[in-house]
Amino acid sequence: MAWVYLFLAGIFEVVWSTAMKESHGFTRLLPSIITAVFMLLSVVLLAISMKTLPLGTSYTVWVGIGAIGAFILGVVMFGESLNSLRVIAVLLIFSGVILLKVATKE
């Protein structure tokens, strides 16, 4: 169950980081509220997953999910550049997340 909580925490990190971008420096109310709510949910789920998962694994996977999700939404929603070096970098992050999952006994 810890991995499910960790995955949801990572997804919620993507939600709050995207909402933060949409808040325009916390000058727009609804995206600012979404940022705060999903940030709290994300951190709470991360903390729950850390009850049984190692710190290094859980935190790195959480950040990795957030980074990959933010990268994808940045390209899709905000027209950020997509080039081979950025794709390779994201694939390396993805590989690291998968290797941590495989290497962690839980």
3D structure, described in words:
This protein is mainly α. The chain is built from four helices and no strands. The protein has helices at residues 2-22, 29-49, 55-78, 84-103. Helix 1 runs antiparallel to helix 2 (29-49) and helix 3 (55-78) packs antiparallel against helix 4 (84-103). The longest helix has 24 residues, at 55-78. The chain is flat. The mean pLDDT is 95.
Estimated structural class: mainly alpha
H/E element order:
HHHH
Proportion of beta-strand residues: under 5%
The parts where pLDDT drops under 50 for at least 5 residues are: none
Q: Which shape, going by the Cα principal axes?
A: flat
User: How far is it from the N-terminal to the C-terminal residue, by CA?
Assistant: 10 Å
Helix residue percentage: over 70%
Q: Radius of gyration in whole Å, from Cα?
A: 15 Å
Q: Biggest sheet, in brief? A: none
The strand count comes to 0
- The average pLDDT is 95
Oligomer: single chain
Output the number of helix runs.
Answer: 4
Give a short overview.
By secondary structure, the protein is an all-alpha fold. It has helices at 2-22, 29-49, 55-78, 84-103.
